[in-house]
Amino acid sequence: MRDIPTVTRRVIESRDEYRCIASCNARLSPGSRLLDGGCGLPERTLYFAGRGTGMENRSQSMAACVSIVRCPSYDNRTVAEALRAVLEPLGGIQRFVRAGQRVLLKPNFVLARRRDEAANTHPTFVLETARLVREAGGEPVVGDSPALGSARHVAARCGLLEAARDAALPIVEFRTTRRIPSPRGPAHRPLRVADEALDADVVINLPKIKVHGQMYLTLAVKNLFGCVKGRRKALLHQQLGGRPLEFARMLVDVCQAVRPVVTLLDGITGMERHGPTGGDPRPLGLILAGTDCSAVDRVVCEILGADSSRLLTLQAAREAGFGQTDLDSIQVLADGREIRPPFGFWVPELAARPFLLAERLTPLSFSPWRILRGLFRQAWSHLAPPKKGNAP
Q1: Per-residue pLDDT tens for 221-269?
Q2: Domains of the chain by start residue, with CATH
Q3: In degrees rounded to 5, what are phi and psi of residue 82?
Q4: Alpha carbon 318 to its chain's center
Q5: How many other C-beta atoms lie within 10 A of the C-beta of residue 104?
Q6: How crowded is residue 237: how many other Cβ atoms within 10 Å of its Cβ?
Q7: Fewer CB near the terminus (10 Å): N or C of the chain?
Q8: Taking a C-beta distance cutoff of 8 angstroms, is the pair 102, 96 a contact?
Q9: Structure pTM?
């Protein structure tokens, strides 16, 4: 373990299972692959040690479970009860969080917008998830790396920053990254992923249902792209934007590297027509949960009436054998009871009018001026207090 960074070494040495796996890793040659029985720890420790990639024991033939509950508003009590209900079929928060664990909550913080614009994961959704984590004995922190600006400024604008201070909930910036090999092998582009995500004991994924002008939808898999530092995200958009399937493969690589233990999807109010910013808020009244990011994304496509073949992260996941993309092999539980497709009947908000999706997909671009402006905002965020949001 001499070559492992100090922070990572402390994380590994704090857990018996980490120490056991790390001792085995010391005997592995670079590029080795280790079968992960489901807990996620072997792969993460391999990444810590920089000795190869894990191989997840989740084949396309294995069933996955996605839980859905109704949640009509962002009232704190309503959201808290809905989060408990959506997690219950999966074993509750206690299945995913243990006492003393550092838990990274990874919301969708794309840009500094008011909460009513539906561009970011709603602050109430983040706060109530943090409370659940604390009830299980975990130590939650909120972290993301917007392509432009800082996580603190996004949190301030959407109304989370002040509430997080009152709740003693840290909001961290992703400042340093680690180079890790692509799960597809040495012939493919290596990844640079935030240390804060790789060093967390647990990552909980908190995406939002939104249309995406380049990738069709931004859901569970796409949200983990936030664990790539902001400036590098802009660069990857520029480099791979004209090759959408290769971009999707990279997104799946990042998702495999971060390996969230569970996804809690904010679908109470989504964004339709255009996205990931500047679209129209659309009440849906849903929260989804699942341990399989690909399965969650596939179920959302079915709920929205979206063409799943246009969501290229699902195609990339099938190629990689990552997660379950076959709807017939996904168990869907609505309020704890199994339902079968079509799911539209279960969402009255979609009965009157379908969810508006992007008709034409175009690569996102970041001009040098936008990147420079984002860098200035990041620097300024460390010198000046961010403005408070003015949303209701």
Answers
A1: 999 999 998 777 767 766 776 789 999 999 999 999 999 999 999 999 9
A2: 1-57 (no CATH), 60-381 (3.40.50.11440)
A3: -70, -40
A4: 19
A5: 25
A6: 17
A7: C
A8: no
A9: 0.81
Among 46-50, 65-69, 141-145, 375-379, the range scoring the smallest mean pLDDT is: 46-50
Distance CA(102)–CA(99), nearest Å, equals 9
- Of all residues in the chain, the percent with pLDDT exceeding 70 is 76
pLDDT in tens, 44-66: 444 444 434 444 444 344 469 99
Using H for helix, E for strand and C for coil, what is the string for the chain? Answer: CCCCCHHHHHHHHCCHHHHHHHHHHCCCCCCEEEEECCCCHHHHHHHHHCCEEEEECCCCCCCEEEEEEECCCCCHHHHHHHHHHHHHHHCCHHHCCCCCCEEEEEECCCCCCCHHHCCCCCHHHHHHHHHHHHHCCCEEEEEECCCCCCHHHHHHHHCHHHHHHHCCCCEEECCCEEEECCCCCCCCCCEEEEHHHHHCCEEEEECEEEEECCCEEECHHHHHHHHCCHHHHHHHHHHHCCCHHHHHHHHHHHHHHHCCCEEEEEEEEEEECCCCCCCEEEEEEEEEEECCHHHHHHHHHHHHCCCHHHCHHHHHHHHHCCCCCCHHHEEEEECCEEECCCCHHHCHHHCCCCCCCCCCCCCCCCCHHHHHHHHHHHHHHCCCCCCCCCCC
CA end-to-end span of the chain, whole Å? Answer: 50
Confidence category of residue 15, pLDDT binned at 50, 70, 90: low
Distance CA 392, CA 380 (A): 26
Strand pairing category for 102-107 and 202-206: parallel
* pLDDT tens digits, 290-328: 999 999 999 999 999 999 999 999 999 999 999 999 999
Closest CA relative to residue 117, chosen from 12, 7, 273: 273
Amino acid in the structure at residue 343: F
Spatial distance between the Cα atoms of 17 and 364, rounded to a whole number of angstroms: 42
Estimate to the nearest angstrom the gap between the alpha carbon of 358 and the chain centroid.
Answer: 22
Q: What CA–CA distance (Å, rounded) separates 56 from 77?
A: 37
Q: How far apart are CA 247 and CA 113, in angstroms?
A: 26
